[in-house]
Amino acid sequence: MLRYPIYPDLAGKVAFVTGGSGGIGAETCRWLAANGVRIAVGGRDTAALARVINELTQDGAEAFAVEADCTDAAALDRARIAITARLGAIDILMAFAGGGTARPAPVHETREEDWRSALDHNLTATFLTLKAFLPAMRERRSGAIVTMASTAGRAASAASSAYASAKAGVIMLTRHLAQEVGPFTIRVNCVSPSAILTERTARHMPEAQRATIAALHPLNRLGTPADVAGAALFLASDSAAWITGATLDIAGGRLMH
Ligand SMILES: NC(=O)c1ccc[n+]([C@@H]2O[C@H](COP(=O)([O-])OP(=O)(O)OC[C@H]3O[C@@H](n4cnc5c(N)ncnc54)[C@H](OP(=O)(O)O)[C@@H]3O)[C@@H](O)[C@H]2O)c1
After folding, report:
1. pLDDT digits over 86-111, tens only?
2. pTM, full prediction
3. Which domains, from first to last, does the chain contain?
4. 73-87 and 125-140 helices cross at what angle (nearest 10)?
């Protein structure tokens, strides 16, 4: 536990992490737990959720699983009711669910269903998550929200145009919302990672490819889930009290805006 940086203001707060069942989201849950945050861990995969919850609770954290598909508004409403009943009002929302499963293809060859799916699973899922949890935050006039973009949404690349467009949309949604809810003392920021080595990406990336991708980054390595979790915790904490509407590139120097 001592390896995690501690933000004392986070202790006792309640967080909901969508995409908490794996990769970057699961690591963020570990960092939140080490800071004494009480966590609702979101995902769809029951077994993966159980593994994360077991690990967190064995380490003494208060955490429970919330099975909800973030493309389903009714499921998110049920999630909000369950979390509030179990942990109380939500202080921190990490809207991380998403992913880049869309196959890169030239725009004219991109299937409409793949386009719609990428938008649905990244941009619309983020919108629906925000929509479900904002009213209570507005009422309490407090909250910290972190959304999840990608380097793909920051600069043209070989990634799928649908995924890139969806993540660019998340960045603008973040800015728009930050402006809208600033007067309610709600901060909304975005993390934008480049290539992060998670359990899933590791399965699909041979060593040689890892070295090639690492070399695209001035810091000459792939990112880790901890690189993103550290940034997300900072943005959720009072140390970032005057930061809102920002997009933080976690990209080893690959992007410098
Ligand atoms: N890894 C990278 O290199 C990288 C780079 C830039 C941005 N990102 C973004 O970071 C986020 C997390 O990615 P990751 O690499 O950590 O991926 P991951 O290991 O595949 O985890 C994805 C997480 O999102 C959840 N999820 C996906 N769609 C969902 C939906 N419709 N409803 C609810 N949960 C959903 C998954 O839950 P279940 O498995 O339980 O369904 C899982 O917990 C994604 O938004 C991704 O686009 C990743």
Report:
1. 999 999 999 999 998 778 999 999 99
2. 0.98
3. 10-247 (3.40.50.720)
4. 40
